[in-house]
Hints:
globular; 12 strands; four-stranded mixed β-sheet
Amino acid sequence: MLINILNSTEIKIMTVMKTHVALNVTNLEKSVTFYRAMFGLEPVKYKADYAKFDVSNPALNLTLNVTNSVQTGGALSHLGVQVESTEEVKSAIKRFTDAGLALFTEDNTDCCYALQDKVWMTDPDGNRWEVFVVKVADTAPENNVGATVAVGEVKTANKSCCA
């Protein structure tokens, strides 16, 4: 539990931690349109060069900061929101389709050694997002690092997805 002291007479207790992601964007209007559809809500703050989405589920403080250029990718592979059911993935697909966003869907895909349903979108500056549900948590437990196959032999595997 985090305690934030507002002044000497008032104490606010934060019971939920939020991840903060600050994205540089080149076109704030297009980015706000994308993230409105992504999260199904309006920004809590929207200025000429800045927008903030305060998302309760997942707990996220997302800010968009206008810049002249953005280097697509960099060290970031992609971003995602894990939901609890395939119905929530389908709801996201409808929301994105209604907003006119280009998307790509995958059903029963084995990705990151997990069976998943997912939908992919790309924001106006090239950041790839997925909304996904994990249906089977580990499709290859025998490939865990350190899993012994035979006495003295260690089996490892390299498998890439989401790339």
